[in-house]
């Protein structure tokens, strides 16, 4: 077992399963205490023994999700449902026409990843580290492990997808939207909680966190350095997640670091269609083709205007420029070294039919 | 609406406008220059260059697509592969691209299958062949292509052993005499930020070079497990990455790119090397005989050292990069960054390009201009550099360039046929294995 990934094996290998579980549980409780102190937009309250469960929006608490059979975990922050104005006003500096017309949108309550998904979490799935660990430790898969094992995993990348920018604690990048969606499917099976990518509306709502300014901290790009990694302060590469100030709802790196996948397709008339309604509820512009799909928030490689709450960017063919094979991989955007994602979990788990709306679509698999 | 978003290509702000504009002007000037001297049979695209593909895997298909995207008349007229299914899926994938579908003319009798398919492709009325089989076949295919007076684009690496390298060098010389184009798929030579950074370093940006560090540390590549009913030869040909007579080990198949960058910078190849390596996690079925890690110390004739690392192990620190340290500073060539004491770092901020497309644009334009390129020698020397590293890690000995390139250790099978026996896989044991 000495050749296993140290992150997965360290500490656990010497302990009996019961002891190990008890310790993990203890660690989770401590983590919940810690994260509750940071942000609790749902209105205070003390951490509960089962914070990942909530009947209504007011019961939602921050929680830490442990990825079973590994040493990795991630934090989720409750985002109360509500109504907001999506898009930017015509006079916002740096604005592009596709950010309008502004329109009223209502979204249902959800939890959102406090941070962008890191390589530490992503590679468990990408490189089968969980399966490898079970093999080495001689452990039997749990019922959830078996469900998770049934989710498709990517082929190995030919080259190093960190591009020398660092791994532990850094955001995962260069995945296609399909890969990000499949990761969410795997994570859902593994944890028993339904995770998916955010819609563009959910993303902007969470990013704005009740604000109507260009950024969630105001309109002045001079303040950006306190909240975000972008072209002028990133030293030409992504940075570890969670090192800047969070937004008012406790989410880190919504502006900058890596741009984040949303579920929507980007076309110029969707906002106009929505604006015909007095209020659009949970909009999703479902993709029908491979390109273009939305990433949000801007990145370490962008200037301030691309980091604005309303700014949109579209995926493009050139994001696979350095994949020299035909057919090109469906799993990697070799040139999107500025694109990652974060996960979302709706308060109310959707029905099987509703989940279809968010699933990997045929266009992606062309 | 997409293009405005891309920092690399688009119209956003000021900072990069100047560089972009000047790069475009330079490109326009060079096009004009090449047209004015164009006088060959393919001049100005008036004549169609007929292409044959030998080796229809993912890379061969990609290279063919790029060749068909170049300017001027081009047509894909024949294909060859050891396996029928690989050929057909390659053709089907190429035809999906509407831009090039009209440049493909592939009747049944121009699709050749088996070990001798390359001969049939060469005899099918082509002007240029793309050689993209596993590298073990490259020396044979190149020699035959040059003998048949064909222009060649060949993928890296260009051989897997000393005898193969010598054959490639011989063929490259012949190609030069015949004024045939010979390009090698070491695409960094056609990648803007590499070209600019190397030029600055050669102009003394960091003084004299002292050491270099190069890496291809990754998770490894695909495995194609054995299927029932396959002969040993069929199995090895499908799962070729793991057998040295076909692949040369990952130090040759992948790490060549990084070693090649320092050879390019130095303008020469190392004089000797020693190293260590092994198979730590590559213990499953279907993983043949290649190592999963190598660390090699190379020495150039002037005493400069190059430290080289390559690994195929998931879940470790990864890097695919080239770095150089000099008397006045250092550079990350792979990122296009040069650092000198007391000064703000220089960073490449020019136009990014798709080097896989540019290498074909450059080749076809040069053939049409009547001044075809010959990249055979540096392609062979960089391949040999990687093979010499493998000889060092397999044997555990110091290996000199002369010993390596004159080695008579031939990895090829005695006979190429699906019912013939391929070489028996044998994992090297340093200190015992004769590796050169």
Biggest interface and residues each: A-B, 41 and 48 residues
Give the strand order, joined by hyphens, for the main sheet of chain B. 14-13-12-11-7-10-9-8-15
| Biggest sheet descriptor of chain B | 9 strands, mixed
Give the mean pLDDT of chain B: 91
What labels would you give this structure?
heterodimer, A: 366 residues, alpha+beta, 4-stranded antiparallel β-sheet, 10 helices, 13% strand, globular, disordered N terminus, B: 436 residues, alpha/beta, Rossmann fold, Dihydrodipicolinate Reductase, domain 2, 2 domains, 9-stranded mixed β-sheet, 6-stranded parallel β-sheet, 14 helices
Model description:
The complex is a heterodimer of chains A (366) and B (436). With 366 residues, chain A is of the alpha+beta class. Chain A is 24% helix and 13% strand. In chain A, the strands form three sheets. A four-stranded antiparallel sheet of chain A has the order 1-2-5-11. In chain A, helix 5 (143-149) packs antiparallel against helix 6 (177-191). Chain B is α/β, with parallel strands linked by helices and 436 residues long. Chain B folds into two domains: 15-188 and 358-375, Rossmann fold (3-Layer(aba) Sandwich), CATH 3.40.50; 189-352 and 384-405, Dihydrodipicolinate Reductase, domain 2 (2-Layer Sandwich), CATH 3.30.360. In chain B, 35% of the residues lie in helices and 18% in strands. Chain B is built from 14 helices and 15 strands. In chain B, the strands form two sheets. A nine-stranded mixed sheet of chain B has the order 14-13-12-11-7-10-9-8-15. Chain B has a six-stranded parallel sheet with strand order 3-2-1-4-5-6, sandwiched between helices. In chain B, helix 7 (162-177) links the parallel strand 5 and strand 6 (182-184). In chain B, helix 2 (58-68) runs parallel beside helix 3 (84-95), helix 6 (138-147) packs parallel to helix 7 and helix 11 packs across helix 13. The longest helix of chain B has 20 residues, at 17-36. Mean pLDDT of chain B is 91; it is low at 1-40. The A-B interface holds A 3, 5, 7-8, 96, 98, 123, 127-129, 132, 155-164, 167, 236, 266, 268, 291-292, 301-303, 306, 313-314, 316, 318, 321-322, 324-327 and B 1-9, 12-13, 57-59, 61-65, 90, 93-94, 187, 216-222, 254, 280-281, 314-315, 317-321, 332, 334-335, 337, 347, 354-356.
